[in-house]
Write a structure and sequence with these properties.
The protein is an alpha/beta fold. It has nine helices and five strands. It is globular, with a radius of gyration of 16 Å. The protein starts with a helix and ends in a 5-residue tail after the last helix.
Length: 211
């Protein structure tokens, strides 16, 4: 058993249910997480997006292969540890993760497999950390502007759509995966996403692993 697997087993023992909200830039996942927490209250804990925290906190964003790889390694470890800290502190609460440890593979230069090899893990091990995945398809898929309140977002519409595709290819391998498709109405999209999230939480809380 690898160290990553041991950490995964420990993490899974310490939470009631852990759900990832992911997707390409401009998908609405952060808005959905915040609204769901406000609706449900203290039963929900949001694990913030590590990349946004780190880039706004001073992590250099340099566009060359070695720098991108170094940044993604750092983000991966911070993301996992944020999740495990929250899971240990709030073992009976729903963990909503704004992105997860798989996301870095989509931003990694080259083949996604080399991302997991570099970190001594695998896609299957990382997917097993989570009980469910809700994928918010980027507005870029519909050719719409993705500018929003995230100051670290720098992707063009084309780049955002490509990231969306890569992320979908990775996360869709999870056995409990749901897609919230692009919608011209952001309000309708978020409403659909919140309904899917509520349904997933209810299902997980009733399952043996989710309790």
């Amino acid at each position: 058993m690898t160290q990553a697997t041991k950490s995964t087993d420990t993490a899974n023992d310490q939470h009631r249910c852990r759900i990832v909200l992911t997707g390409g830039p401009g998908g609405g996942k952060t808005t959905a997480a915040d609204l769901f927490r406000r609706e449900i209250g203290e039963d929900v804990v949001i694990v913030p997006e590590a990349a946004t925290m780190m880039f706004t906190g001073g992590l250099p964003r340099i566009n060359n292969t070695h720098a991108v790889q170094a940044a993604q390694r750092a983000i991966y470890h911070v993301q996992r540890n944020l999740e495990d800290i929250q899971g240990a502190q709030y073992p009976q609460r729903i963990l909503l993760c704004d992105r997860g440890s798989v996301d870095g593979a989509a931003y990694w230069p080259g083949d996604a497999t080399t991302f997991f090899d570099d970190l001594g893990s695998s896609l299957n091990e990382e997917l097993a950390r989570y009980d469910g995945v809700i994928f918010f398809e980027s507005a870029a898929v519909g050719g719409m502007d993705i500018e929003g309140g995230n100051p670290t977002r720098h992707e063009s519409v084309e780049q955002a759509a490509e990231l969306d595709r890569k992320l979908y290819d990775l996360w869709s391998q999870h056995p409990n995966f749901i897609t919230v498709h692009h919608n011209k109405s952001f309000f309708q999209k978020i409403s659909i996403g919140l309904a899917m999230l509520e349904e997933m939480v209810t299902k997980l809380q009733r399952s043996p692993r989710g309790m």
